[in-house]
Fold this sequence. Notes:
2 domains; 0% strand; 361 residues; mainly alpha; globular; 63% helix; Farnesyl Diphosphate Synthase
Amino acid sequence: MTLQAIELPVLRMPYPVRVNPYLPVLHEETETWAREMGMLGSDEAPSARRGIWTLSQFHTMAVDQLTAWALPDASLAGLRLNHRFNLWALAWDDYFASAFKQTGDLVAAQVFTARLHAFLPAEPGARLPQPVNAVERGLADLQQRLFPPRLAHWRQRLNQALARYVDAGVQELANSRAGRVPDVIEYSQFRRESFAAYTAPYSVELATGARIPEQIRHSRTVRALLDAFMDYMGLANDIASYQREVHEEHDVNNLVVVLETSLGITVQEAMRAAADLVTARLRHFEHLIQSELPSLVQRAGLNHDERTELDGWVRGACSFLSGLHAWYSGAPRYAAASDPLPEQRTSTAAVSAGERYPSVS
């Protein structure tokens, strides 16, 4: 079945798209950091200045819009920092795809990834190696910026999440080289790593200034909420990026391919099943917020300030999902997308009838 014969589903998203008011500022300066890190080459050829992208490729990704949609309430400083983080993650992804996935050079990929681990120290102030490429320069720069004192608790866990992210790229390459399609159960956990989803709660905290209170952070309900939050991101991306990953990059690490192989169904059936699974994870996220978090808050005896902070984090997580959904649906990076960009069809405060940000108080 050709791609043109496959009907791409429209995924449900109950939360409104809002746009950070600092988007125009971000748009004006979006090239600056990428140029400083060496991620941008000439517009004639990506390799002319050893860049990862040409200028036209860079603007096609619309990363400034992604950041502003996903983090509508972030300060300008928080928005800039998250924008750089998003740029780095996409730079790693595109560099790894061109340098290793296209060549199938697993050994070189392992060497490259081992060096990246040296830029992810467990302790603050550790001396980093001298960067030798744009990905290393970007990661070294972020290590100096990503850890304000209030979020120091994230240093070790964030770097562990980033290590899992880059390691997952090596595993994806090994799978593709061997023609090994992951099992559907295995893949759901693996996708959280390969999409860098474990870093997303940090982005929400950084953007909102709100933390999940420590009394409930490790509860079953909150763990399940974070799992559903992370699952939606990567699994929804698999649907949006199906053409790019499977037909252009010949990647086997995609939910649609996994379901097609694991369940022995057609591509179109797998696409529908993937959409159903993504919707189920989002509904579970909603259920936990509406039905389980309030009783957990009550049992834990959270005070007013702690409840307010939890509400802020939940609203930030909902915005994060709606922003990602908007990017998947409208950004030129995903060639199959044809809808207008959200900034063209909604105001920064638009809320459709019946759609609200939930409260757990």
